[in-house]
Amino acid sequence: MKKKNSALSTVLTVFLSILCVAWVYPIVMILLNSFKVETAISTSGVFQLPNAATFAGLANYVNAVGSKGFLSAFGTSMVITITSVVAILLCCSMCAWYITRVENFFTKMVYFLFVFSMVVPFQMLMFTLAATSDQLKLNTPWNIWVIYLGFGAGLAVFMFTGFMKSIPLEIEEAAMIDGCNPLQTFFMIVLPVLKPTMISVGILETMWVWNDYLLPYLVLDRKKYTTVPILIQYFKGSFGRVEMGPMMACIMLTVLPIIIVYLVCQKYIIDGVVAGAVKG
Amino acid sequence: MVKATKKWWPIFVLPTFLAFIIGFIVPFLEGLYLSFCKFTTINKAAWVGIGNYVKVFEDAQFWTSLGFTASFTVVSTILINVLAFAVALALTKGIKGTNVFRTVYFMPNLIGGIVLGYIWNILINCVLSIAGQPLLALNNKAGYWGMIILMCWQQIGYMMIIYIAGLQSIPGSLIEAARIDGATGWQTLIKVKIPNVMPSITICMFLTLTNSFKLFDQNLALTGGDPNHSTEMLALNIYNNFYARSGAAWKGIGQAKAVVFCLMVIAISMIQLKATRSKEVQQ
Amino acid sequence: MKKLFAMLLVLAMVLSMAACGASAPAATEAPAAEKPAEAPAAEGSVYYLNFKPEQDEAWQNLAKEYTEKTGVPVTVLTAASGTYEETLMAEMGKSEAPTLFQVNGPVGLANWMDYCYDLSGSELYSHLVGDDFALKDGNAVLGIGYALETYGIIVNKTLLEKAGYTVDDIQSFADLKKVAEDITARSAELGFSAFSSAGMESSSDWRFKTHLANLPIYFEYQADGISTTTAIKGTYLDNYRQIWDLYINNSTCAPAELSAKTGDDSLNEFRNGQAAFYQNGSWAYGDLTGTFSDDELAMIPIYIGAGDEAKQGLCTGCENYWCVNKDADQADIDATLTFLNWCVTEGAEALANDMGFVIPFDTAVESNNLFARMANAYIADGKTPVSWNFTTMPSEEWKNMVGQALTAYAADQTDANWDAVVTAFVDGWASEYALLG
């Protein structure tokens, strides 16, 4: 019995390792190709390792960062992600708390609308959303968070209310009796308890906003701002040509920070996802 | 306490709700209205009644896209869930390196759809060209399976995490009891494990179902709908009707398609919700 | 302290939300208030949505120069290749919509008619050499063509001589076929191929689904004595197949690989001396001057074995018409008109040399663009230029369908696959025109 088990786990380990390679390979492939000279990146030559003749050093990276505006796109993406996620966390947790604690027709209605908005696909309102945000001038990286807050409120409020229903009321009531107003109660009592949910909502929203392509593509003032996904999409066919080298370099520069952040805080991320899924 | 809190709504609810009006309610209602109009830009819309909806159902491309989307959704949902569950089972056996495996499998989730699409576009084209097959732009079979592989690659890790959590929450005593009763590994799986992770399964089914049905970025970057729009899913089809087709009529048709699409997604969600509810009652 | 901070944060949030809400009705005033700060010297600004990615840099430079001289801000945004309609659609919906955009001819104009400012009273129009280059609706001038360009087969004369031929040996499709197939037969020995890859990736496919497709359309129009139609017959599609076969089977790569070949690939092959022929136009001149001297290059007509080949010249025409957005503020419209007039007068040299355009204005200067000069030389020789009839193609969708079918045919050259090209060409033309109504 014991022997059979260890044989089985060897087979499993080998199988899972092979799977692992399949999971890592595409990214390694891009990494290798990003060091090749432009002309060596042909359709059928992607699997070849760079050699002395095709090695381009960091030229593609220099090109991507220097002339293709990678840094400003990265900055724009950062600003959008940070402002949006902070806004969503703060506003939606407050909103969710109010909705769970004050139950009347109005809050029930609002909650229903939020849940409804989770289901609606973006295509339903992409055109009109672009028009509305343009009229209100919500088209810069500094205020596009209003759109993200509005469009992303559904999921966040839903997850927060799901968690808040399980917090016992007694402590809050005690705080109120001690003279705290609702705002103080929220920030001093509720918010600390909310920390794990904050993290999981934060992670889900960050993943969404950072990688989002269509919303900023349609809403942002494109004369001035580009985000990273838009920049990568723009490589295909702008400037009158496709530049595979700088495109691969850009992909790497986009993927690497994500992987590093992930490796550093993977525990939070994975737990966050689990919590999010179970609540959702 | 409720009374004291009640009048604080301008601070607690208003910011989110204002943004919600701007970011959802207004565009949603406008979108509903525009689906009955012919327009190029929003300020020059002319009412045409249900004409757009008639044209949606007459548009052959709509049915092609719907068929492709449905087939893709079903196959990818099944594959992702079966594989993710299998991997989750393997990773709860306590073998060495479980953490490393888990970390690696989950990683693709963090990368955006556009980037993933391009990575796989390059990779699949290379494989096809070595195999002497037509490239993605011409090969809708490769496009279809490419998207499925891509979705598996991206989503298995995510679903696996949820399944692992589900499997780990099964009380050890239950499995122990089954073992003592002489159940084989297979029987334990069918009779004990699967019924106990039913909530996880519904969640994962729901997530993969809606993710696949609403897929856009990956579709755009991997195949772009080529060849001949045959790998164009509904979301991309709506986008193309809006922005890539010339002629004022197409915006209205696109918006009408979006409404139909939206109704379909709502229907799927309602069915799913009902299924989840009935499961919860059982437990 | 923490409490205070939290309170402040919330206050800030509420205030900023309130500000957002309040600024909604005032939105139209906001840009007016900002503008003087940006451009103290002038009112109005120009936003140009440029169609041609090849000239993006040249336009950016020209815009910068204009802004430095006059203080009028000029923004140039170039749409990625193949996404102009898409970008225009998105941008026109915005409140800061382009003041200046382009349509590709009568078909393009039909979509944007309601947005075009009547240019008949403008100074720009007074410089235009003839109404052939204006898009008119009654007496209103809605679009003004600004660039005459020329395309054909660009030849690397050095390589051609290496193979034992000169440009003069190619006077017809039969000649072209003979030379190309001879080069292919000896390509291992010569070290180069006849044609650079006919890439069908979106950065390059317009060379074939639009420019090459112009030839069968042109000859059909000539034969029928018409200038546009809603029902194409496809009389010369066999000739289209001939030339396409020649391109793809005498190329640097296997036909099946064409679907992923980009414009860059094709250009690099030609620049690296891997191919003797390269179908492209005068706009590619700038890409080649770094590698070749004028003596090493030539452009020959695209012979497809139709019409009077002895009299066939290069393909010269106009598919770029400027339109001014009539919904823009009057100040912006005026600024745009002034800018355009400046472009064709003081900027004429940049248009001619940096962008390689021959401009149909009385202010034009002689271009140093070799291919533009060759177009004129052909005309001086008594040859008739092939006009650009792809402006009558029904839609982008039509071009894409033809392109897809061409690519599929390249990968597998069967009659059935060519029938698909014919279907896309002929039936697609009719059905796309039907949709326009």
Task: Give a short summary of the structure.
The complex is a heterotrimer of chains A (280), B (283) and C (437). Chain A has 280 residues and is mainly α. Helix content of chain A is 74%, strand content 0%.
User: Percent helix among the residues of chain B?
Assistant: over 70%
Q: From the coordinates shown, what is the CATH architecture of the largest domain in chain C?
A: 3-Layer(aba) Sandwich
Anisotropy-based shape of chain C: globular
Largest sheet of chain C: 6 strands, mixed
Task: Indicate the low-confidence ranges of chain B by residue numbers.
Answer: none
In CATH, what is the class of the largest domain in chain C? Alpha Beta
Strand content of chain B: under 5%
Second CATH tier, the architecture of chain B: Orthogonal Bundle
**Rg for CA atoms of chain C:** 25 Å
List the chains of the largest interface with their residue counts.
Answer: A-B, 98 and 93 residues
Oligomerization state of this entry? heterotrimer
- Tell me what portion of residues of chain C adopts beta-strand conformation: 5-15%
CATH fold-level label of the largest domain in chain C: D-Maltodextrin-Binding Protein, domain 2
Number of helices of chain B: 14
Overview of this structure, please?
- The complex is a heterotrimer of chains A (280), B (283) and C (437).
- Chain A is 74% helix and 0% strand.
- With 280 residues, chain A is mainly α.
- The model of chain A has no long low-confidence stretch (mean pLDDT 85).
- Chain B has a two-stranded antiparallel sheet.
- Chain B has a single domain, classed as MetI-like fold (Orthogonal Bundle).
- Chain B has helices spanning 2-6, 9-12, 14-34, 51-58, 60-91, 98-106, 113-130, 140-168, 172-180, 185-196, 198-213, 217-222, 234-243, 249-282, and strands at 37-39, 45-47.
- Chain C has 437 residues and is an alpha/beta fold.
- Helix content of chain C is 48%, strand content 14%.
- In chain C, the strands form three sheets. In chain C, strands 6, 7, 8, 9, 10 and 12 form a six-stranded mixed sheet that branches. A four-stranded antiparallel sheet of chain C has the order 3-11-5-4.
- The longest helix of chain C has 25 residues, at 2-26.
- Residues 1-41 of chain C have low confidence and may be disordered.
Topology:
The complex is a heterotrimer of chains A (280), B (283) and C (437).
Chain A: H1 2-33, H2 59-66, H3 70-101, H4 105-119, H5 122-135, H6 145-164, H7 170-177, H8 182-193, H9 195-211, H10 214-219, H11 228-235, H12 244-264, H13 266-279
Chain B: H1 2-6, H2 9-12, H3 14-34, E1 37-39, E2 45-47, H4 51-58, H5 60-91, H6 98-106, H7 113-130, H8 140-168, H9 172-180, H10 185-196, H11 198-213, H12 217-222, H13 234-243, H14 249-282
Antiparallel strand pairs in B: 1-2
Helix pairs in contact in B: 4-14, 5-8, 5-11, 6-8, 7-8, 8-11, 9-10, 11-14, 13-14
Chain C: H1 2-26, H2 29-38, E1 46-50, H3 56-70, E2 74-78, H4 84-92, E3 100-103, H5 106-112, H6 123-127, E4 134-137, E5 140-145, E6 149-156, H7 157-162, H8 173-185, H9 187-190, E7 193-195, H10 206-212, H11 214-224, H12 237-249, H13 263-271, E8 275-281, H14 285-289, E9 297-300, E10 312-317, E11 321-324, H15 330-345, H16 348-354, H17 370-380, E12 384-386, H18 396-411, H19 415-436
Parallel strand pairs in C: 1-2, 7-8, 10-12
Antiparallel strand pairs in C: 3-11, 4-5, 5-11, 6-8, 6-9, 6-10
Helix pairs in contact in C: 10-18, 15-16, 18-19
